[in-house]
Amino acid sequence: MRKLTLLALIGLIVQVGAPAVGRRTEQSFADIQALLDRRAAAMIDGDRDGFLATVDRDSPGFARRQGRLFDGFQRLGLSEYRLDIGRRLWPELTTSREVARYGADLEPTVLHVEERYSIDGYDAQPALEDQYLTFVRRQSGWLVASDVDLDDLTLFSGRKLWEFGPVAARESRHFLYASHPDLLGAATTILSAAERALDRVAREWPLVWKKKVVILAPSTTAELGRLIQATFDLDVFVAFAASGVDRGQDWDLVGHRIILNWPNFSLYDDATQEAILTHELLHIATREYSGPVVPVFVEEGVAEWVTGHDSASVLAGQVENGLFDRLLPLDHEFISGSDAVILSAYQESSAAVRFAAEEFGDDAVAEFYRQLGAVRRSPGTWRYHVGRAMREGFGIGFDDFQERWARWVENNLD
Question: What is the pTM of this model?
Answer without folding.
Answer: 0.88
